[in-house]
Request: fold
Amino acid sequence: MVYDVSKLTDFHYSALKEISNIGIGNAATSLATMLGSEVKVMTPDLKVARIEEVAEFSGGADKLVSGVLMKLSGCVKGYMVMLLPPESAKLICNTITKEQDSDIKNPMNESLISEVGHILGSTYMTAFSDFLKIDVFASAPFHTYDMIGAIMDNILIQMSQEVEHAIILDTLFTLKGNDMHGKLLTLFDPISLELILEQVNALFR
Reply:
């Protein structure tokens, strides 16, 4: 059965959101451990969007972001992407380095942001994998500072255009009383997305 993602039911959205809540909660705990500071997280808003809508939902194709990309392998194929506005990336770097005005394009700070992205992404995908009982592995992170449109175009090239939809988690973390917005995107090829939705049906029905 090939699912028409544009016609996902409320049941599918509720199930994916429940899985995402567990994953993002675990990710926030891991992030707090890394930063040595309490991290609060609001329930993420989940959308399933066509790939051409991702930039619009993420702030616009021309919006500059600090992005961390991880390739997914195992039972499913695709990418996980963390997108941070510059001010959120700077907050993370300031917290770790104790600086007042971190340069997020400094190689050391890019490495810090990559590590944060990897912790969030890999922890989230571990929860996703455990819940759905499918093996999913996240690669080492790759950091980029670019416009959202350029980042998405690069991913589509890497995936040979074999992706039509993205699952978007719009998340708000609070770190030391400051709001840190971020988006986690998961992009799966059609076969992988079909497997995920089959597992959702099997577990929740």
